[in-house]
Amino acid sequence: MKEIIRKLIQGVLTDLESKVNVEILVDYPKNEQFGDYTTNVAMMLAKKMGKNPMETANRIISNLKFPISNFFEKVEAVEPGYINFYLSPKYFWDKVEEINKLKVAFGDSPSKEKKVMIEYSQPNTHKEFHIGHLRNVIIGSAIVATTRKAGYPVVAANYFGDIGSHIAKCLWGLEKFHADENLEKIPDRAEFLGKVYSEAVQAIEKNPELENEFKDLQNKLESGDEKLTELWKKTRGWSLGEFDRIYEILGVKFDALFYESQEEQAGIKILPELIEKGIAKESQGAIIADLEKYGLGVLVLRRKDGSVLYGLKDIPLAIEKFDKYKIDRSVVITDVRQSFYFRQLFKILELYGFRKQMCHVGFEAVSLKGGEMMSSRKGNVVTAQKIFSEMIRKVKDQFLGAPYPEEIALGAIKFFMLKYSSGSRIEFDMDEALKLEGATGPYVQYAHARICSILSKAGSEKLKSQKQANFSLLSRGKEIGLMRELNKFPELVEEIGESYEVHKLPHYAIRLADKFHSFYDECRVIDEAKPELTQARIELISATRIVLAETLRLIGVGAPARM
């Protein structure tokens, strides 16, 4: 509807031969008493033309060319020059019917040609998959699902950090402190590797003389030492296997997998060309990209000891994405602290002549409530598996007899993580996440379960007739308010498909659940004395259930029928 209004106004401005260019912004009023949509275009236009805003607004309204009854009950100008659009009740009634007809396809945008790759998760092997990694996965999977619903062909990608100094430290720690142990008998081998890495880091920090031992092992590993390579492959497999188990729990699947170990060789091959083009140069034995004149500092691509850094690996990776998968846009989701680095990377690719649509979505850190910031080096990380187990235990204690404790626990985690904008730091509070009231996953899941219960009762009592519902009976304020919220869903999907601001999905789910509860508290759904009204309200809550479940699906949260 926003786009329809924009086109209507643009047609008026064209007819009025207005040579002043203004952006036509259409939004929802902060207060619903001022309509369903509002625009300040008249004020923007009047300011540029030196005209009266109210006169300009009324002139635009009088020249709108469409039968108002098709969409709007009324269109009015209000001080100081806003144009407010009020959708007609019939529009809302038709929307309820449309939702029940389309079901989960409601909100699907038309197919688009632009193919998008969304890269997220990117865990390092030989380290624990902790609560911070969860936020990346939850944001990324929601962006993938919503972008697909917005009509874009999407390739979901993951990039594993399976080489680097952290892995060499872990292998050194295994050789130094655990050489006599049977590693195959260790029950949680992936978590064990993370502890060994932390053990190695702390040992070297306490005794710097051990640095030489570690460096010797790192050089042997990079030179292809057969024994160390076998140990690397075995332990890498442990980590990757653990990641797969976590992704299965989270319901996450990837279409493309990249590995840092493979991109390193491609980076080494491309380095001479970067030097030849003047993009990279030697500096004190290292190879750098000097981006000072662009305000982007200096990025080291290869250290003087010959070790290759992220930038040199990410250059061929970016090219491979577009060449192999024929994408039109690349989106990378990582810690916000890497934002400056990605600006450097994108500039290097531009200088190389690789001008493609690439963007970085950054997210802030997450910690447990009352806990210090986590660090694999310190060994104080809280693993994802421990979070899962503790949340499930809490659900079983709090929701006695709940048939789907895992679904409620995972939903609570995902909803809590996602309801904050990516730029906000999070203190994850397990008890807060599981509350049945407020902005939580269980609150929204309960709204869905409540609707399912009502629909089940209606079905068992055979209250729904086969004839078409009389939607004109849905005229009360709470009914209109609920339909108004349902109408916003397709526009939200379209918006997030461009902005990637997926935190708006939980906020929408909360508003929709609020509107349903408010409606239910005032309006009796099943009334045997009023079968027509009952049928109309059943259709309304059925549409609400569909949209609520689909919103939860996009953020990876289950929609239980009972709680």
- Mean pLDDT reading: 93
Principal-axis shape equals: flat
| Main sheet strand line-up | 7-6-5-11-12
Helicity level: 40-55%
The biggest sheet amounts to: 5 strands, parallel
- Rg on CA atoms, Å: 28 Å
For the record, the CATH class of the largest domain is Alpha Beta
As for the number of domains, it is 3
Kindly report the name of the CATH homologous superfamily of the largest domain. Answer: HUPs
Number-wise, the strands total 14
Describe this structure in words.
The chain has 563 residues and is α/β, with parallel strands linked by helices. Helix 6 (131-149) links the parallel strand 5 (116-119) and strand 6 (154-160). The protein folds into 3 domains: 2-87, Gyrase A, domain 2, CATH 3.30.1360; 120-261 and 311-368, HUPs (Rossmann fold, 3-Layer(aba) Sandwich); 390-554, Isoleucyl-tRNA Synthetase, Domain 1. It is built from 21 helices and 14 strands. It is flat, with a radius of gyration of 28 Å. The two termini are 36 Å apart. Helix 5 (89-102) packs across helix 21. The strands form 4 sheets. A 5-stranded parallel β-sheet has the order 7-6-5-11-12, sandwiched between helices.
